[in-house]
């Protein structure tokens, strides 16, 4: 067969395919009975003819976005699915809960016998949610992580990361010989540092149920065994929180960052506590911008001593002076 003949057959096949696609498109947008235009009724999930009223398709799935909701009740009414799975719950949120309201589907109060029955059902439901000791351990730990994260004002992504770290430690049998609270505190501390929203050890100990020695020992053990990649804490990551708690201006926060940049160039940050450097930078910046903040106020916010602030802020000012003079 010659090239001319092959090219002719190919062109004919292409024209035939185009004609079939065109006819399918037209049939999808026109009524098969009268040829009128089809209209999609999203409220009833139907496709009907705008001229004769023929229902072409019904029970369609609406794949569009959710409707806007302005409160919890509207969101519940318009939601098509349940809550997404989350690592912050021991069963990842796939189980069901029996509500605490003693009311039926119509909002009427239950009788005393029915209330007792519902209470028994809640008790057994709570027992069945944790099948073994491992799940009970995980449930207690995740509750502890959520409690500490709420007290420290940590965002949801940090809680999720801490839950994943704890699950890994539990799966690799790192908990024997260590308390649930200690591993939970260490997981949350590691997650906060990974998310670049660190909290100091003193802050963690304040909300935790374990001591500093147990928490730091467990933290080092988990990081080593799980091979977690955690960078050294940057003093600048503490500055926004300290400035916000002290109600300082953006100019003061920017000036504190500049002081820390100067200290980094001169090598002053090496071997010093990032929390102390951040607090000293905020205090020094408040002096340079004429904002009235006392050392005791900064000390209370940062949970460090006033002596540390006095020593570090002088070093920061000297480092900036030396860098400017050079």
Write the layout of secondary structure elements.
Layout lengths: L2 H27 L8 E4 L4 E4 L5 E3 L14 H7 L33 H18 L3 H20 L3 H16 L8 H15 L6 H7 L4 H15 L12 H7 L4 H16 L8 H15 L6 H8 L3 H20 L1
Antiparallel strand pairs: 1-2, 2-3
Helix pairs in contact: 4-5, 4-6, 5-6, 6-8, 10-11, 10-13, 11-12, 11-13
Give the uncertain stretches in residue-range form.
Answer: 4-12, 22-27
Count of helix runs: 13
The profile of the biggest β sheet is:
3 strands, antiparallel
SSE-based structural type = mainly alpha
What is the count of β-strands?
Answer: 3
- Characterize the overall form: extended
Level-2 CATH architecture of the domain at 133-226? Orthogonal Bundle
Encode the helix/strand succession as letters: HEEEHHHHHHHHHHHH
**N-to-C span:** 84 Å
Overall mean pLDDT stands at 82
* Helix residue percentage: 55-70%
What radius of gyration results from the CA coordinates? 32 Å
Q: Could you name the CATH topology of the domain at 133-226?
A: Cyclin A, domain 1
CATH top level label of the domain at 133-226:
Mainly Alpha
In the sheet with the most strands, the strands line up as: 1-2-3
Could you tell me the strand content as a percent range? Answer: under 5%
**CATH homologous superfamily of the domain at 133-226, by name?**
Cyclin-like
Sequence repeats: 143-226, 237-318
Function: Stabilizes TBP binding to an archaeal box-A promoter. Also responsible for recruiting RNA polymerase II to the pre-initiation complex (DNA-TBP-TFIIB).
Binding site for Zn(2+): 31, 34, 49, 52
InterPro entries: Cyclin-like_dom, Cyclin-like_sf, TFIIB, TFIIB_arc, TFIIB_CS, TFIIB_cyclin, Znf_TFIIB
């Amino acid at each position: 067969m010659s090239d001319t003949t092959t090219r002719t057959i190919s062109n004919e096949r292409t024209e035939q395919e185009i004609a079939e696609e065109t006819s399918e498109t037209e049939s999808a947008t026109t009524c098969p009975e009268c040829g009128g235009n089809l209209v999609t009724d999203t409220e009833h999930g139907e496709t009907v003819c705008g001229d004769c009223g023929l229902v072409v398709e019904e029970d369609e799935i609406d794949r569009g976005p959710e409707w806007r909701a302005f409160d919890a009740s509207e969101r519940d009414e318009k939601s098509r699915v349940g809550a997404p799975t989350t690592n912050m719950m021991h069963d990842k949120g796939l189980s069901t809960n029996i509500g605490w309201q003693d009311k039926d589907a119509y909002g009427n109060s239950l009788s005393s016998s029915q209330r007792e029955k519902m209470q028994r059902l809640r008790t057994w439901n709570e027992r069945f949610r944790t099948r073994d000791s491992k799940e009970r351990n995980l449930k207690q730990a995740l509750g502890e992580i959520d409690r500490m994260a709420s007290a420290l004002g940590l965002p949801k992504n940090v809680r999720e990361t801490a839950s994943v770290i704890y699950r890994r430690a539990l799966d690799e049998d790192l908990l024997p010989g260590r308390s649930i609270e200690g591993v939970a505190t260490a997981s949350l501390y590691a997650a906060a540092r990974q998310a670049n929203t660190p909290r100091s050890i003193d802050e963690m100990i304040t909300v935790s149920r374990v001591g500093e020695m147990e928490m730091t020992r467990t933290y080092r053990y988990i990081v080593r065994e799980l091979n977690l990649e955690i960078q050294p804490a940057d003093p600048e990551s503490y500055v926004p929180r300290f400035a916000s708690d002290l109600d300082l201006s953006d100019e003061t926060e920017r000036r504190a960052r500049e002081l820390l940049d100067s200290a980094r160039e001169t090598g002053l940050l090496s071997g010093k506590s990032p929390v102390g450097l951040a607090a000293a930078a905020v205090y020094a910046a408040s002096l340079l911008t004429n904002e009235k903040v006392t050392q005791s106020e900064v000390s209370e916010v940062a949970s460090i001593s006033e002596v540390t602030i006095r020593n570090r802020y002088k070093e920061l000012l000297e480092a900036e002076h030396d860098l400017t003079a050079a």
